[in-house]
Amino acid sequence: MSVQSNYFNYLFLIREMIEIASQSYQMYNSSTLLARPWINAFFMSLVVVNCWSTPILQHVLAHSSGLERVVCLTLDGLLDAGSAILIPLIVFLPYARVFDRDSLSFSSDNLYDPQWFVNMVRENRMLFAMSSQDLFSKLVPHHSLWSCMKNIKKLIVRQKYPSESNYAPGATDPPAKDDDHDLVTKKVDSSPKKQVEYPGKGKKLVHAVFTSWGIAVLVIYLHARHISVSTDVPACKLPLRPWFATTFACASYNFDCHEQGQVDTVTSSDLSILRNDSLAALIISNCPAVKMPPELRNFPNLLKFLLYNSTIASWDSTASLNSVDHTSLVSICLVRVNMTEFPLGLQQELPNPLTDIQVSTSNLTYLPSSLSQKWQPMTIMYFEFCDFTEFPLVLLDLRADDVSLAGAKITALPSNMSSAQFAWIGLVLSGNALLSELPDAGLKSGILTLSIENTNVSEIPSWVYSGMQSFAGGFVVYAYNTPFCLAENTTSSVASSGGSGATGASSAEETVSTGSGGSGTGPTGSAGGGMTSGTVNCVTRDPSGEARYPLALTTSSFQPS
User: Fold this and answer.
1) Which residues contact 520 (CB under 8 A, 6 or more apart)?
2) Do 192 and 44 have their domain in common?
3) Cα separation of 408 and 389, whole Å?
4) 376 inside domain
5) pTM exceeds 0.85, yes or no
6) How distant is the alpha carbon of residue 314 from its chain centre?
7) Residues 327, 205 within the same domain
8) pLDDT: is 181 or 21 the higher one?
């Protein structure tokens, strides 16, 4: 679109219509994804100003088409920058500030906070194109901003005059020197007869369309806001204001039986008031007899489910979390939950995006063997502080990176752990006070860390030191406060095959380590050569803690006052 084109006004109109349509689409997405009301209000203001500014400016500046074009393009560029640059920065910067660049992750305090987690996932979707239409609507304001800058550069120039030396004697005097610095418009007003203007009725129609569009956007926004503020739902922690909503929209819903008037359970009516496609986090807490309602299956965009400090009275397959109804689910947590058996509602095929199932502090005594046919690979499986007396054999057939059975009552490990279907990266058995030995056959090759802190293990089998692990650097056994470590009064290093051992300074506080195939290791536990070695750490505690799930954090957030 050339600023000097005779058809500039028509081309500008077409571009404005496409631009406003794309901004309206992005504003709609914002209303469904962003829970911060002031961002939605700011976005609405940008769209409404964009709709109304063109008719107003073209009417007020009708006497000077050059000035009109300068002002229209400048304002249009500012509005484009607001929607394409400013709003994404407002969304992105708070998360960039708290991102840990060393661990390439966010802190546990943030990730285990349902409200923060839901906000992070949903808000950052505004930064990425989720469909081809979304991609187009995101590119339009960027292209429009570039076009505005290019045309403003052409439109605003310094008027140039010949130098005085080029004037012959008797010629007309050149303009005053001060006039050389005046800003003028370039040839836009010089030939008005050649410019193509809107016909009178057509111009009024265009202005009416733009004005009506702005009014419609404002009315839709106010209606969505009215639906949100007029419905009193104290359990909603992140209310949304999506366009065209007829029911209450909530991103994070915490149904606390204690706060709801000492009720026993969440009911169908408690969930049916929520807009189905808006709910992303559901927390049910402090309920003495939970009967899970079938409406649990009505939330396709659910990301996180947490059941806290409750007793499960019934949770059957009619109220299941499954791969068909919950295609976006990434986390399931059961914390301080009383259940006589593992609920049928979780013995279903789970969605592929699911990364973790975490159970902490429960009277659960076993895991059904059928889970190996129902559950897909995950990153995390924690069953901590449960009443397991035997190692759940089904875990040997499930694929997970990090497995924790901390705080259970396991007395022995199965002898066939080395034949597990998949290798774990980390296994936590800390706090199993009755566990006295590790399996002679070892674990599946590939494990990096084994935590047996505060157990009754008194001997470390030879496979720990054999260099059998496939990852460079071997693996670490955290054995703090075990009989094995308590019996070690000095640091010891022993080669498992033919090497000469080298013992470091005598100190009960040194790390105990053993290498293989080299000249021995010092008190720091670094191998002298050959294959990678295992390291038994008796002093430095597991940096991730004895248990993995942050129980204290969840308790402080949801325990009734």
Assistant:
1) 493, 495, 499, 500, 501, 502, 528
2) yes
3) 7
4) no
5) no
6) 32
7) no
8) 21
3-state secondary structure of 434: coil
Domain containing residue 320: 251-352
The reply to whether 85 and 156 lie within a common domain is: yes
397 DSSP assignment: G
Same domain, 267 and 143: no
Q: What is the DSSP string of 206-238?
A: HHHHHHHHHHHHHHHHHHHHHHHHHS--TTBSS
In the chain, the number of structural domains is 2
Same domain? 110 vs 143: yes
Q: Is the pLDDT of residue 531 over 50?
A: no
Task: Note whether residue 495 is domain-resident.
Answer: no
Claim to verify: residue 215 and residue 299 sit in the same structural domain: no
pLDDT reported for residue 165:
47
Quick check: helix, strand or coil at residue 92?
Answer: helix
Paired tokens of 221: 């926004």
Last residue of a domain, which of 310, 336, 352? Answer: 352
Q: List the structure tokens of 389.
A: 């007396």
Mean pLDDT, rounded, for 263-283 = 95
Q: Which two tokens stand for residue 131?
A: 């469909």
User: Poorest-confidence range of 28-42, 156-170, 255-269, 309-323?
Assistant: 156-170
How does pLDDT run across 415-447, given as a tens digit for each residue? 888 888 888 899 999 999 999 999 988 888 788
Closest CA to 15 of 207, 144, 203: 144
DSSP single-letter state for residue 531? S
Instruction: Let me know: does 60 contact 85? Beta carbons within 8 Å.
Output: no
- The answer to whether residue 401 sits within a structural domain is no
Q: How many whole angstroms separate alpha carbon 199 and alpha carbon 368?
A: 77
Residues 348 and 215 reside in one and the same domain:
no
Do 202 and 266 have their domain in common? no
pLDDT in tens, 211-236: 999 999 999 999 999 888 888 889 99
Q: Which domain-ending residue is among 301, 333, 352?
A: 352
Domain annotation covers residue 105? yes
pLDDT(524) > 50: no
What own/partner pairs with CB < 8 Å and gap ≥ 24 does 376-381 have? 376/349, 376/350, 376/352, 377/422, 378/354, 379/355, 380/355, 380/356, 380/548, 381/356, 381/357
Residue 272: both structure tokens together: 């049916």
Q: Indicate if the alpha-carbon torsion angle 352, 358, 359, 365 is positive or negative.
A: positive
The pair of three-digit structure tokens given for residue 363, joined into one six-digit string: 């009277």
